[in-house]
Amino acid sequence: MNKVIELDYGYKIIEYEELASTMITLKELAIAGCDINTAVWAKKQNSGRGRHGREWSSPKGNLYVSFLRKPENKSSKNIFAPVFIVALAIAYSIKDVSGNKVVPSIKWPNDVLINKAKVAGILIENISLSSNINILNIGCGINIVSNPDNTLYPATNLNNEDVQTSSKEMIKIFFKNLKLLEKLYIREGIKEIYKMWGVLGHKIGDPISVKIDDNKIFGIFNGLNDEGGLLILNEAGCEQVIMAGDVFLL
Ligand code: BTN
């Protein structure tokens, strides 16, 4: 029997010593009809996965958790709402556990960075429960004690940045911040979330590049569009809208 941690803010976290991936186990639970407040936490993953089909190195000591969320309505333009909300929840949780000493930044759309190195990543997958019911499976990986070398983007971990915490402490703070942000989103709307993302995200004029498949676009960050897509003013002076890709800070 797995241990279940019930948090004040409604989430039920099922704890596992080792899994292939929390994404797989949570998907199985969702298809079997688990409550939307279910989250799966593994101390270690054997087949951790990242964005764009990449591997997510998952040794013991870091945080690996997946949880469910209702998708935005089909007619909604706020497709980046879950992406930004979760990135903000992770960034604020790191700030909290560091006693406000470390304020992470966010690289579009949802990589959390400390000193320009990636400390946490988010993977969002869609689970189709029936022909017209979908649910989001959101996985978060936070490097607490270690990080892989040789990654596409330089990586770091919390201990390396002088932040001491445990995965259990991070989980509790993360779900508290997530709940607060979800409430704020319902109350104030996406504009407030964009505003908060803007404080930790890129600033207009920051030099960036975006890798999309085998192409790389160089330019400067020019804000977000109404849907949360990234606007880049390319070297030819034309604005391009990016809805998916790997951003690099230059
Ligand atoms: C990224 O590439 O930046 C996203 C990484 C997401 C990793 C997390 S760890 C918990 C969950 N289980 C997985 O296999 N992946 C996600």
**What best-fitting shape do the alpha-carbon axes yield?**
globular
The largest beta-sheet arranges its strands as 1-2-3-4-8-7-6-5
Helix percentage range: 10-25%
Low-pLDDT ranges: none
Count of DSSP helices?
4
Q: What oligomeric state best describes the polypeptide chains here?
A: single chain
Mean pLDDT: 95
Q: How can the largest sheet be summarized? A: 8 strands, mixed
| Strand fraction | 25-35%
Structural class by secondary-structure content: alpha+beta
Count of beta strands? 13
Radius of gyration: 18 Å
Note the gap between the termini: 49 Å
Could you outline the blueprint of secondary structure elements for this entry?
Elements: E1 3-6, E2 12-16, H1 22-31, E3 38-42, E4 63-69, H2 81-97, E5 105-107, E6 111-114, E7 117-130, E8 133-142, H3 167-188, H4 190-200, E9 207-212, E10 215-224, E11 230-234, E12 239-242, E13 246-249
Parallel strand pairs: 2-3
Antiparallel strand pairs: 1-2, 3-4, 4-8, 5-6, 6-7, 7-8, 9-10, 9-13, 10-11, 11-12
Helix pairs in contact: 2-3, 2-4, 3-4
Biotin binds next to helix 1, strand 4, strand 7 and strand 8.
